[in-house]
Input
Amino acid sequence: MKEMKIPFQATISQSPVSLPRYREEEYTDTQSISILIGGAAGTGIKTLEKLLSDAFRRSGYFVFSTSEYMSRVRGGSNTTLLRISNRPIQAPCWYVDLFIALDAEALSHVQERLTDRTIVLADESVTDAQIDITVMPMMKTAKKLGNTRYANSYVAGILFGMLALNSVMLLQSVVILFGKQNQEENEASVQEGILYSKSLKKLPLPKLPEPIQNLINSFHLIDGSSASGFGFLAGGCNMITAYPMSPSTGVLNFMASMSEDFTLLVEQSEDEIASLNMVLGGWLGGARAMTSTSGGGFALMSEAISLSGMSETPAVIYLAQRPGPATGLPTRSEQGDLDLAIHSGHGYFGRIVLAPGSLQECIDYGYLAFELADRYQMPVIVLSDQYLADTVGMLGKVDFSAYEQRRYIQPTDASYKRYEVNNSGITPRGIPGLGTGIVVSTSDEHDERGQITESYQVREKMVEKRKKKIELVTSEAYAPEVLGQGSIGIIGWGSTKGAIMEALKGLDDPRLFQLHFAWVHPLDPQSLEILKQTETNIVIENNVTGAFADILKSHGIKIDHRILQANGFAFFSDLLREKLFKVIKELS
Output
C-alpha cells in the first residue's frame, strides 16, 4: 500500500488553538452620514448601492450597507441603507439623513424613518402632500441618454455633486461596475447628474467627515457570506454540499466561485437530507466537508445530526437564520433558531454552536468550526442570519497564515479500535485506507471496534465516552468578549454585536459594559462568573422569547431585563439606544 502523509497532523493532547488577535481600536469621534435608497425590486436599487459603496470607498470613507427586501423578483418596496463614515461602522440606523426614492411607493414605505432634517430626492413625477421633495429629472434624463438603466449613474452623479466629492472616483467606479460597454453613456449620465446638482437650492446637508488617506489600499468591501466563506477556506474546507435556501445561498455561491482556485468539491445536492449525509461521508473519507442551509432545511437534517453524534463523525453546518415558523419571512432576519441548533436530533450527544457577530468573526469562527469539528469529532453549527450574511462592510487586511492548521487524522494498524474508551472520550480518528486497520462506522450503538451491540454494559460505556467529550468541550469553550467595565452588563450574542456597541457609545454611561457571546453552546460556567458580580444584567436578542437569556438563567445568572425584537429587522443602533435608555432609567 502506498504510504500517505497527513499534513498538519495533530493530536487531542495538544492545547486548543487560539484565534489571531486583532487590535480593537476605540473610536470616540465617529462622524457618519446615512443614505437610504428605496424602490421596487428590478429598479436597480442594488446596482446603485454597489456603485456608491465603491465610489465612497475610493473617496476615503468607511462604508457600511445593509438591505431589507421583499420575497419577490420584481415589484414590492425594498430599501438599502448606506452609511459613510470616518471610522468603521458595524450597525444600521433607523433615521436617515438622505433618502433617494426610486419610485412613489418607496415614500410611504419608509415614511417612519424620515425626520425634519431628512433630505428627500425623487423623480419629478413623484409627489407627496406631506413630504418636502427635492425633485430631479431622473427618468427623463435617462431616456434622453438612451435607456432608463442610466438612472442609477445619474442619481449617483447628483449625490456626488451635492456632497462636493471628486467625480473622478465615481467615474472609476462606473467603469469597474459596468465595464466598457455603454461606458460613454454611463459617464455622460454621471456628468448630467453633477451638473443638475449645481442648480439645486442650498440644502441643509449634514457635514461630511474627513476622508482617510489611502483607505482603499488598507480596507476591502466584503459581505458576511463571503467573510464566512473565507473563514471556511482558512479552516481547510475542501468539500461543500448544499441545497440552495435563502439566506444561506450566499455561502454556497461564494464557495462555488472559489472552486477553480482551491481544491474544493462543490455539489448542489437534491435536498438538505442528502447534503448533510454527504458531508458525513466526506469526513469519513478524510475530507473537511460542510453544508449550508436555513431553518427549514436544517429541520430536515435532524436525523443526520444524530448520526454525526452516534458515529462521532465531524460535520460543519452553516445555518443562516430567517424568521419562522415554516417559510416565515424568507428574506428577513431573526435569531430564532438557537434552540433548534442546540437541541435538534434525538438522543444525547455533543455539538458546538458558534455565532459570529462581525465580519472579522465570520472569518475567525468559520475557521474555528473546522478545527473544533475535527478535534472533538462532533457537529459544529455556525449560526448566522440574513442581516449578517447580506450586510456589506469594510475589513482590513487579514493574515491567513496566522490561522494554525491541524489535522487530527491518525494512521491505523491491525489493533485499531475506532471507539476505544479512554480518559478524554475522544478516540484517535482513522479513515479507511490510511493504514492497515479496519475503520467501522455505524448509526447503531456499537462496541469499541464499531460492531453493533445491544449489550447494556457496552451501552453504558459508550454513553459515558460521549459524555466525556462534552465535558472536555465545555472546559475548553471560549469565554465571551468583555468590552468595557461597569455594574450593568449588556449581553448579546451573534449579529447583535455592532448595534449594541454603537448604542452604548451613544449612551456614554460609565455603568454600562458589553458582553458579546460568539461561542453560545456549550458554555463554560467559569466564564459566566462575571455576570454573577454585576448589579444588573440586560439581554438583547433578535427573537421573541429570549432564548439565550433562558440559557443564562439555567446557569444561575440573574436576568433583570430582556430587550427582544422579532419583526424581521436586525436591531437599529439609534432605536436600541432609545430602548436601553428607557430600561436603565426604569431600573434606576
